[in-house]
Amino acid sequence: MQLIFQDPFSSLNPVHNIRYHLARPLQIFGHARGEREVTEQVLALLRRVSLSPAEQFIEKYPHQLSGGQRQRVAIARALAVQPEVLLADEPVSMLDVSIRLDILNLLLRLKDEEKLAFLFITHDIASARYFAEDTLVMYAGQTVEGGPSDEIIQEPKHPYTQLLLSAAPDPERIQAGAGSKELTARGEIPSLITPPTGCRFHPRCPHAMPVCKERFPGRTNLGNGHWTNCYLYGAGDESPKTDTSVAQGAD
Ligand code: SF4
């Protein structure tokens, strides 16, 4: 498993060139030995992330590259280890809007062609829909809704997911005007050191009931792999999970 970090301006060491950044993981993990083999593999990695002609990039330093090119190098560095899973933490949010789609499409190509699994963490629910088959929505350390991405976007059930979607720019909703479905945000994101009891969204939820403050609801299955933890849909068919180690979506 390897990480792709959010900020390619700080995840590459400014005093080392691209060859060094890619040769190190190849050598440490024993995937290439000898200068010639290392160079060949570094060039191959640069081509896999569409940095070509690769020979022109191999001796460059991070400051000589654009943000998108740096992120491609960071992705190549992650690939050098031959991972099965990539954890991409907001991999496009630091990039110029015009090149975000290029990087997302590169990651999609790696996912589909090289059968890599991705855990893609984002606050941008639109890119989650574009990228991921399944989406988990997390609020203050609790996963509150999950299922197929299209279903989550088109039929959001949890009030926090509805709030997230209402905050995302949507030309159709703007045209629909006042009649469109929209939630009003209220309150602040809670302290994660002393989070609210029960459902952590209850201080901000327009539908909060007394029970919401007391206990976190169990998971209610809604069909088609779609589920939520919210008393609006019952107390849950399953006991609530406390595990917060897997998350995709906003916090
Ligand atoms: S469990 Fe209660 S507070 Fe939490 S989202 Fe559902 S209705 Fe709102």
Question: Class of the largest domain, according to the CATH hierarchy?
Answer: Alpha Beta
Q: What's the number of structural domains?
A: 2
CATH fold type of the largest domain: Rossmann fold
Strand order of the largest sheet: 4-5-7-6
Oligomer: single chain
The chain-level structural class is: alpha/beta
Give a count of the beta strands, DSSP E runs of length 2 or more: 7
Helical segment tally? 10
User: Which CATH-level-2 architecture of the largest domain?
Assistant: 3-Layer(aba) Sandwich
Whole-number mean pLDDT? 88
> Helix amount, in percent?
25-40%
From N to C, what is the helix and strand string?
EHHHHEHEHEEHHHHEE
Note the main sheet.
4 strands, antiparallel
Keywords: ATP-binding, Nucleotide-binding, Transport
Protein name: ABC transporter domain-containing protein
Organism: Dictyobacter halimunensis
Domain ABC transporter: 3-165
Can you offer a commentary on this structure?
The protein has 251 residues and is α/β, with parallel strands linked by helices. The chain is built from 10 helices and 7 strands. It has helices spanning 18-28, 35-48, 54-57, 67-80, 97-113, 125-131, 149-154, 159-167, 171-176, 210-214; strands at residues 2-4, 85-89, 117-121, 134-139, 142-148, 220-223, 226-228. A hairpin with a 2-residue loop joins strand 4 (134-139) and strand 5. Helix 1 runs parallel beside helix 4 and helix 2 crosses helix 4. 31% of the residues are buried. The model is unreliable at 242-251 (pLDDT under 50). Residues 158-159, 199, 201-202, 205, 207-209, 212, 217, 230-232 line the site of iron/sulfur cluster.
